[in-house]
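Dear colleagues,

As part of the handover before I leave the project, I'm documenting each prediction I ran so the next person doesn't have to rerun anything. This entry is a single chain, and its sequence is reproduced below.
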Amino acid sequence: MDWMDIALGVAAVIVVVAGALSGLRQWQNADDAKRREMIAKAVKELVLDAEQTYVKPKAGLAKFGWVMGKLSRRFPDVEWDELAGAVEAAVTAMRKEQISRSVRHRNGVHDS
């Protein structure tokens, strides 16, 4: 391992720490509405990631556990029930969108 590898490693750690501190600062300075918005955005992204990661049928419980684990680490001061409700709402919205796209596709209407 040469000095260039060490420098790249140190730079990577600095970037990760700076990003974490920036996110923490945004969370601390946000009002309740902005916090709900931040949670909703994170939930939506994680639900979509879980859908792509867990592709086997009947993997709902594994998806839910994975998403909740990520959320509870990212938002440790938010109640579990609040996070779970946000996950359920995101899944419901995603399913409705999938059904809507499916129906439009069968009827010959395509997204442009």
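Helices lie at 3-29, 32-53, 60-74, 80-106. Residues 3-29 form the longest helix (27 residues).

All the best with the project,
I.
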